[in-house]
Amino acid sequence: MKWLGEFVDPGVGIKDFVAGMTMSGSKVEGYEVEGGELQNIVMGKVLSVEKHPNADTLFICKIDAGGAEPLQIVTGADNVVPGAMVPVARDNSVVHGGKKIKKGKLRGELSEGMLCSLEELGLTLGDFPYAMEDGIFLVEEDCQIGQPVQEAIGLNDTMVEFEITSNRPDCLSVIGLAREAACTWGKTITVAKPRVKGGAGDVNDLLKVRVENPQLCLRYSAAAVKNVRIGPSPRWLRERLRASGVRPINNIVDITNYVMLEYGQPMHAFDLKHVSGAQIVVRSARDGETITTLDGVERTLSPEMLVIADEAAPSAVAGVMGGEFSGIYDDTQVVIFESACFDGPSVRMTAKKLGMRTESSGRFEKGLDPENCMPALLRACELVELLGAGDVCDGVIDVRNPPAEPRRITVTPEWVNGFLGSDIPWERMVSILESLEFQVEGNVVIPPSFRGDVELKADVAEEIARIYGYNNIPSTPMRGKAEGIISPQQKFEREIAALLTAQGCYEIVTYSFISPKGYDRIGLPADSSLRKSVVISNPLGEDTSVMRTTAIPSMLDVLARNYNNRAPEAALYEIATRYVPTEDGKLPDEIKQVMIGLYGGDNDFYTLKGIVEALLAKAGVAGEYRRVEDNPTFHPGRCAMVTVGDTVLGILGEVHPQVCENYDIGAKAYLAELNLAELFAARTVELKVRDLPRFPASTRDLALVADEETPVGEMQKAIADVAGSILEKLELFDVYRGKQVGEGKKSVAYSLTLRANDRTLTDEECDRTVQKILKKLGEIGVELRG
After folding, report:
1. Which of 260, 342, 505, 751 could form a disulfide with 500 if both were Cys (CB 3.0 to 4.6 A apart)?
2. Which helix (H) or strand (E) holds 282?
């Protein structure tokens, strides 16, 4: 914020600043006050230093920290001398990393705090090169006794973090954000034009530049500095770099980083003695050519990549990283500053292919402004003279393509207001555009060169809207007829979801891609058609490498996660999609499934079956259940297929113990998987309403004995088929197994409600119906219990 203040004063507090910048289109992620974690640390003067009487490596210091009495502090550092100014962490203070400091005794002597090194303040030698890395920080800055350390050493800037979208590379700079702040708050931005004295000879006598690939190098500018004097940068520059997250190195390197942050233009500085033939050639890499980059890695290049080379070999990968000999050394005498503009897509592809994304490539790949190269280069030369880092040569080398014609966009106030639903005066529109450095000639708007993202009149309207304030544009009804409707399938899906929620199930959402090992874990045979999955060509990992053909592994993963997090019970559902490959190998068929999973508590097979029956009743479907013995995912005999006629709706049952073990589920688990499309197709579209019954009902109870293996559903179907329309209700109210019915047998008791719509049923009619039912049941081995 101090750096920003050099160009514009927003005139508001930090909270208003971040809110206003976000509303005008520069989204703020957050802000942080530098040195904010440091508490109760002040500057103190060392009055005396004495040896500790009980320890050879400790010293007792008397420190004037601005209090009524000097503090006694024990330290192990041997660089503390009387008269030095040091950071003092007093009693109940906090140093870098959140460590709390309290007074106490060290080897029997009272220590009322701690003297701080660079590390305790969160600093490095790059921030204060004169300090001792392993000793107490002896501050040479102009400071006062008792002054907070943040003020004394300039550790009190405010850093604001922005989320810059890829279409606004101009905002990847302090000047770019200052321009946005000036527009947001109606202030004037002041950017001084760089002034360079020069006088150290002509750069053209030192260096030649040839661009062989102008399609990928839009502009290449260079300047030279003689008699380079390598040293630390001044404190103000180091402070700004540190606050921006850049480690200070030396004055020349710091200048290139500083200009990149200030102007948004990546720069490179290299030693002229490592440029063979004193000539720079910007060309395409040769097939198989290699370069060892600054990080010490040898990289193989290919012809689509652009390199900066000399007469002998490549010295840098254009826009990405320099070579191992393209840096600055202690004995460097002549430095060449490079400020270039490379093709964004080319830089991105090169960085991706080489597996190296840098601060420089991250800027170039978004498409930088060629017109920014020269101001940035001159600013670097100006800083060299300001810092006394060398003698700047006269002139610059500038090889460039012809400047692009400015884009001209015709816009009328009527169109903008109609597009935005606003009533902004044309004068206000012009004022906003000019504050953004757009030119307005009548109804023609000319964006500045750094706004390559503004191409259409809608883009111009957006610029006006964001600065005018979206909150200042009134809400207006949509023009035309806009009807938002949902399809019958969507409505049905929502009804099913609402019903499952009402049944006590929580909705989950899982990934559609899974690991192929999921099929092994649910026990699918090797030849199962469900193993034929769509394989993802660029998966995040093996665990997400195929599109699922069944949602069972996904549901079991979530049940297992809940169980292993000690949830005593769970009832979950998902409207999941499974992907079935097609014979033509193109896009797979996407089939929606209703997936239900339970474990723990009172949940059992009948709980799950009750949920499924409620779901079928909601759809108006009379489902039938058929025992399944051979599904490897489910417990044999505790699994059923749900059908409507010849159509299979799905399956439900208890999960096989081995499958539960595979997922580390230590409780009985239950799953149901139903085909949503088949359920939708089988639903009852129209509900039939009937009058309240006018005639009384008759009831009969039947206690039946059947083999253990006889499905109850088969018995119920036989009863319903025989009784026909007079069967109003059939209710199972008891199942008994024991000695009285014999081994391998079970007693099943039903209550039948019989009623006719046109008459009162006689006892004889009811009895005849019951006899017919018993006869039918006898055909499947079911008898009346004696």
Report:
1. 505
2. strand 279-284
**Residues pairing with 651 in the sheet:** 641, 673
Q: What is the DSSP letter of 530?
A: G
pLDDT tens, residue by residue, 143-163 = 999 999 999 999 999 999 999
Pairing of strands 409-410, 290-292: unpaired
Q: Residue-wise over 218-247: b if at least 16 C-beta within 10 A, else e?
A: bbbbbbbbbebebebbeeebbbbbbbbebe
- What letter does residue 192 receive in the DSSP assignment? P
**What DSSP string describes 214-237?**
TTTEEEEEEEEEES----PPPHHH
pLDDT at 237: 95
Residues 6+ apart with CB under 8 A from 359: 260, 266
DSSP 43: E
Phi-psi region of 154 (alpha: psi -120 to 50; beta: other; left: phi over 0): left
Identify whether the C-beta of residue 293 lies closer than 8 Å to the C-beta of residue 322.
yes
pLDDT at 713 over 90: no
624 near 637, Cβ under 8 Å? no
CB 270 within 8 A of CB 200: no
Whether the per-residue pLDDT at 605 is higher than 70: the answer is yes
Superfamily, domain 39-152: Nucleic acid-binding proteins (2.40.50.140)
Tens of pLDDT, residue by residue over 40-76, are 999 999 999 999 999 989 999 999 999 999 999 999 9
Structure tokens at 718: 């036989």
Domain range 698-784, CATH class: alpha beta
Q: Which CATH class is domain 488-682?
A: alpha beta
Runs of H (alpha helix) within 65-122: none
Calculate the CA 557 to chain-centre distance: 23
For every residue of 553-583, which 3-state class applies, written as one string? HHHHHHHHHHHHCCCCEEEEEEEEEEEECCC
| Cα–Cα distance measured from residue 108 to residue 55, given in angstroms and rounded to the nearest whole number | 10
Q: How far apart are the C-alpha atoms of 10 and 582, rounded to whole Å?
A: 61
Average pLDDT, the chain: 93
| Partners of 589 in the β-ladder | 580
Contacts of 680-687 with C-beta under 8 Å, sequence gap 24+, read 680/488, 680/489, 680/492, 680/619, 681/647, 682/619, 682/621, 682/644, 682/647, 682/649, 683/492, 683/619, 683/620, 683/621, 684/619, 684/620, 684/621, 687/620
- Break the chain into its structural domains and give their ranges: 2-34+158-184, 39-152, 203-400, 411-472, 488-682, 698-784
The domain 203-400 having CATH identifier 3.50.40.10: the answer here is yes
Q: Please, which residues bridge with residue 290 across strands?
A: 300
Angle at 215 between CA 211 and CA 220, to 5 degrees: 40
Q: Amino acid letter at 700?
A: R
> Within 13 A of 233's CA, how many CA atoms are on the CB side?
24
411-472 has the same fold as 2-34+158-184? yes
Sign, CA dihedral 768-772-777-779, equals positive
DSSP 538: S
- Domain 2-34+158-184 -> CATH class: alpha beta
CATH number, span 411-472: 3.30.56.10
Number of residues that make up the chain: 786
Query: Checking DSSP bridges between strand 506-507 and strand 569-580, what pairing results, if any?
Result: parallel
| In contact, 319 and 364? CB cutoff 8 Å | yes
The span from the CA of 776 to the CA of 719, in Å, is: 8
Give me the amino acid identity at 42: V
**Residues 140, 471: Cα–Cα separation, whole Å:** 51
Does the pLDDT of residue 194 top 80, yes or no? yes
